[in-house]
Amino acid sequence: MIATFHETLLRHLPLASAAAWLLIVTFQVRRDRYHTWSEVFFLSTCVAAGAYALSDWVFFNAGSQQDAFVAAGISLASVTLMTLMFLLFTIVYVSRPRRLYWGFAAVAGAMIFLIPFGMLRGVLKPDPAGLYLPQLDPTLFGLLLVYVLAFAGGGLVNLYRLFRIVRQHSERLAGRTLGLIVVFTIVLVTGLGTNGYLGVTQDVSFPPPFSTLLLFIGVATMLTLYPIGRERISEVMRRFKAVRYVIKAVFLIYEDGTVIGSQVRPGERLVDTDLFSATLDVIQNFMRTSFPGLRGKWLRSIAHGDHTIVMERGRHAYLTILLEGEETDQLRRQMRDLLLDFEARNREVLTKWRGLPDDAVGKEEALLPFFEGAREGPI
């Protein structure tokens, strides 16, 4: 009776796990959270987790041996990608992108290459009325377990770094972050202790729980990243990383080059705002004209020495920031959120633009937040 109940759970529970992760994906896309590196890696983690759970559901409900074999291969590849994206997300979220990190992708690629070439030998069904089980090479599968342990462990270390940062600003958010760490650790240990043990020993007496355990991480992730209150971990991290730069000036510019509004740090001396926007327009047009492949795209940043011009484009306008130091994902997220809010408040004005900046409302609300709590001194 216990085995039958367990098999019933394995046949259907992966769908709940997949639904939880795909719900997070849908929520992220609807909130426009897929533009920065940290957002892309987090979204990729969720997609891979959903694919992992969905492929497990197909595996446990497969109607043929061939279908089960393909589903098992996709499942192993998905968990490999999920672990990689989780590590990259946590690194970028608490630190900064570096080209060196792409070496992790090469390791993940090697793991995926081994899946159809030796790791996954086949599938079998010990009981004709039961579930398919994977046949794995113990040595190669052991390498995958080491990979998962190392990459997931690295992600946990970064989550703990995040917890220490958040704890300095909000005990409530720190509690949610700690809860995510605890849940992830429990799932990692139990997952390696069940799927790992059964895969290495090839024990066919008990089906592995596979991705059903990810349901708990999905729920904990939603509770951590989407709290009911106004406090957000992303805002805490933005303020924490703001020490990396000093914002000199902010410009809100319509797509035709008209300056809608601007704010300059007190004491800074800059060129005329109209000349500044016209120069940016010339540079962007030059790039699109010189390189036809760039048509339909725009400059994201221009670096000159210690200074960087950071641009974030909306539907009708774009925000441009001149800063000294290094831009961060959280700064770009703030830029995009404020720009989208400004465009939503001025949808009709921007659609029927007459070239009159005074027609637009909420310019101050879109520009002044960049100077709130900003550092005064040089880097």
CATH superfamily of the largest domain: Rhodopsin 7-helix transmembrane proteins
Main-sheet strand order equals: 4-3-7-6-5
Spans of 5+ residues with little confidence (pLDDT < 50)? Answer: none
Order of helical and strand elements: HHHHEEHHHHEEHEEEHHH
Here the CATH topology of the largest domain equals Rhopdopsin 7-helix transmembrane proteins
> End-to-end distance, in Å?
67 Å
Topology overview:
Elements: H1 2-30, H2 37-60, H3 65-94, H4 102-119, E1 120-124, E2 133-136, H5 138-167, H6 171-201, H7 214-225, H8 233-241, E3 245-254, E4 259-264, H9 273-290, E5 301-304, E6 307-313, E7 317-325, H10 329-345, H11 347-351, H12 363-367
Helix pairs in contact: 1-2, 1-7, 2-3, 3-4, 3-5, 4-5, 5-6, 6-7, 8-10
Structure description:
- With 379 residues, this protein is α+β, with helices and mostly antiparallel strands.
- It has two domains: 230 residues, Up-down Bundle (Rhopdopsin 7-helix transmembrane proteins), CATH 1.20.1070.10; 129 residues, Beta-Lactamase.
- Helices cover 60% and strands 12% of the residues.
- The chain has twelve helices and seven strands.
- Strands 4-3-7-6-5 form a five-stranded antiparallel beta sheet. It has a two-stranded antiparallel ribbon with strand order 1-2.
- Helix 1 packs antiparallel against helix 2, helix 2 packs antiparallel against helix 3 and helix 8 packs across helix 10.
